[in-house]
UniProtKB/TrEMBL annotation, chains A, B:
<dbReference type="InterPro" id="IPR036425">
    <property type="entry name" value="MoaB/Mog-like_dom_sf"/>
</dbReference>
<feature type="domain" description="MoaB/Mog">
    <location>
        <begin position="4"/>
        <end position="170"/>
    </location>
</feature>
<dbReference type="InterPro" id="IPR036653">
    <property type="entry name" value="CinA-like_C"/>
</dbReference>
<protein>
    <recommendedName>
        <fullName>CinA-like protein</fullName>
    </recommendedName>
</protein>
<dbReference type="InterPro" id="IPR041424">
    <property type="entry name" value="CinA_KH"/>
</dbReference>
<dbReference type="InterPro" id="IPR050101">
    <property type="entry name" value="CinA"/>
</dbReference>
<comment type="similarity">
    <text>Belongs to the CinA family.</text>
</comment>
<dbReference type="Pfam" id="PF00994">
    <property type="entry name" value="MoCF_biosynth"/>
</dbReference>
<dbReference type="Pfam" id="PF18146">
    <property type="entry name" value="CinA_KH"/>
</dbReference>
<dbReference type="InterPro" id="IPR001453">
    <property type="entry name" value="MoaB/Mog_dom"/>
</dbReference>
<dbReference type="InterPro" id="IPR008135">
    <property type="entry name" value="Competence-induced_CinA"/>
</dbReference>
<dbReference type="Pfam" id="PF02464">
    <property type="entry name" value="CinA"/>
</dbReference>
<dbReference type="InterPro" id="IPR008136">
    <property type="entry name" value="CinA_C"/>
</dbReference>
Length: 410, 410
């Protein structure tokens, strides 16, 4: 079954908001076997919305829309869809009750909120349990269009609780199996060379994609067919061949983020963990703590942006700081030891670097980052040298620190 | 001038990668007066790419594409565009030299890298100084299509250095002026009510949008016309009226992120700053350090995920922890004082909460977060109560901590 997604809102087109809805929806739909064939973002203009809706309805079986359902003037999706489907807005007592419930204890009900109780007449209205804009489910010529609020948490709730279950009940779908192998130590093209024979001999039913990101290439195998178990077996057989070729360079086969892989390793080995961060500024800690349940292994961090904090809280000696500079192998080694001592953990990572855009020198240009990972008395270090811009330098340093820890703990 | 953006890649449609390119491009194009009217994401399939390209070329003056230029089999944008524009791939010695330069000291050159030196014959080839996939600039019937690599930093570099300057040289554009006012303390609909009269009296040349995000509503005024100074004057006059209505609730008028606003305040007042974080796990520090030059005011953080770290490094008394629990006003007050003492700063924020999904109790359900901001002996606290899911709870706590500090320093 083919799905198209349309996200509506001027803010998407002028780039003030990144459309994260469509990726989330794509993932959720894919998991249950729907194929998203196109995502379109359009402005809050009637003709542009109608144009996008009309061509999507021709290509796809299901069109899912988000956005343009807010209480303010610039939100026109509801009116536009009424025109497109030849219906009108009517007041829904049920939706109004829900709006009152949602807004209770938050703000005083106002006429704009009341207008959100106007819903298209000829459609199935799904009350939005977590927001004031209701979901409209239209059907026409065997095709389905669902309009949802653009607020991500409201969209996610309604997709999960209402839209996906209803779509699954409605269509009979081909089975789909994804398996994603995360590979380290290979740039994309070198990996493709290493896998040439394997790739050329992949069964017809399997599709392969290379997804490179910050030092890791994810290989995604997708199988489609009538029998899920058969497809899974075919996909897994290809995965076994991948292990024969790539061995320990395969980091993970569940498309888990690095912070989850690390978390599982720490839990399995019953180890506690801390970070000492300079240029990453807490980013490694934030990543580690994005995993629910991380309190089982993560105790905390010292973000030592100023040198005096490196000295006072992490006990990096002033001599080392002066002799080698804050961005040096010697300093990250003392930082990582200092983190384990101060936070009383079994292992730690430490990072110090020049994130940029300023602060570079000839000897240590912007992009230079030293990383250390330690488990007890064993310390590994690595150096990062290329400048990809401040944000990406930090992101790469974060990933490389976790990769170094993974190498150490393996 | 109308622009459409097409982003290519299976990974976007199945949601393994969020398309951040189009938002970045939309913002950059908008700043120089181009209007992005549509963004389309399609899979790595010839017919789907061709379909999207063909209709975009009909609607827009300029079509900008990213993605599908990698060295591997699944990348087919270059071949597809050759077919569409009726041309063929030829070997470019100049592009090959660039590829060799880029890959020097990184990996051994392989046949797939060499194939990246094949470029469309009838187009302007722009050598990509930061990557191996070159940029192709096609022209047909007075319209322009530019195909760029999908790797964000490569796209950004080529947009900034090559594509935007060339587009600006090529077209004469209407002037455009944006002004974005960030408003706190108002939910979207309440704000719309407060602004009804003002909004109804906006001049024709001005467009208004409401952009709510984590407790702040950004009001974006966009003016278009022939004379930039005249438009700016009209926009600013409306801004002045906004101040009359909203007063101190206007946080900022430059669409600056909160971390930049805070950074400017701290610099202006010559104050140093630190954070003590439990459930935000370093996220506030990471946000603060995303601003270049933050070392002028930011000294560091203690991420105290474990209670023993709250006690040992932040000197939160065990009695307070036991009596009130880690998620309490009393504890964040001791944390914020502990942060100022341990990191020797003038001010600090502290956060402790139940991010979820687990760990909630009847008294302190998931979503409960206590926040403190301190400047010397003055301490403000606030409490966050609604559960929006782990990631969003952390994001909101981060924002609310910075808003509390802003209130304190104002």
């Amino acid at each position: 079954m083919f799905v198209e997604i349309i996200t509506v809102g001027d803010e998407l087109l002028i780039g003030q908001v990144v459309d994260t809805n469509s990726a989330w929806m794509g993932k959720a739909l894919n998991n249950v076997g729907f194929e998203v064939i196109r995502v379109t973002s359009v402005r809050d203009r009637e003709d542009e919305i109608t144009g996008a809706v009309d061509s999507a309805m021709k290509r796809a079986d299901v069109v899912l829309m988000t956005g343009g359902l807010g209480p303010t003037k610039d939100d026109i999706t509801k009116h536009t869809l009424c025109k497109y489907f030849g219906t009108e807005l009517v007041f829904s007592e049920e939706v109004f009750e829900n709006i009152k419930r949602i807004l209770a204890n938050r703000i005083t009900l106002n006429p704009l909120n009341q207008a959100q109780a106007l819903v298209p007449k000829d459609c199935t209205v799904i009350n939005n349990k977590v927001g004031t804009a209701s979901v409209s489910w239209f059907e026409k010529d065997g095709k389905i269009l669902v309009s949802m609020p653009g607020v991500p948490q409201e969209m996610k709730f309604n997709m999960t609780e209402e839209v996906i279950p209803r779509l699954c009940a409605r269509f009979e779908m081909k089975a789909i199996v994804h398996k994603t192998y995360s590979v380290k130590n290979y740039p994309e093209s070198a990996l493709a060379i290493a896998l040439t024979d394997w790739e050329n001999n992949l069964p017809e039913s399997i599709k392969l994609a290379y997804l490179p990101k910050s030092g890791i290439v994810r290989l995604r195998l997708t199988g489609r067919g009538d029998n899920e178990e058969e497809i899974r077996a075919v996909v897994l057989a290809e995965g076994t061949k991948l292990y024969d070729i790539l061995g320990e360079n395969i980091l993970d086969e569940n498309d888990s983020p690095l912070e989850e892989i690390i978390g599982e390793m720490l839990k399995d080995k019953n180890l506690t963990f801390a970070t000492a961060e300079s240029c990453t500024g807490g980013n490694i800690a934030a990543k580690i703590t994005s995993v629910p349940g991380c309190s089982a292994y993560f105790k905390g961090s010292i973000v030592a942006y100023a040198n005096e904090v490196k000295h006072e809280l992490l006990k990096v000696s002033n001599e080392t700081l002066e002799k080698f500079g804050a961005v040096s192998e010697e300093v990250v080694k003392e930082m990582v030891i200092g983190a384990m001592n101060a936070l009383k953990t079994d292992c730690a990572v430490a990072v110090s670097g020049v994130a940029g855009p300023d602060g570079g020198t000839e000897e240590k240009p912007v992009g230079t980052v030293w990383i250390a990972a330690a488990h007890g008395k064993t310390i590994l270090t690595s150096k990062q040298v290329v400048d990809f811009g401040r944000d990406l330098n930090v992101e790469r340093a974060t990933n490389n620190a976790l990769l170094l820890l993974q190498k150490l703990l393996k």
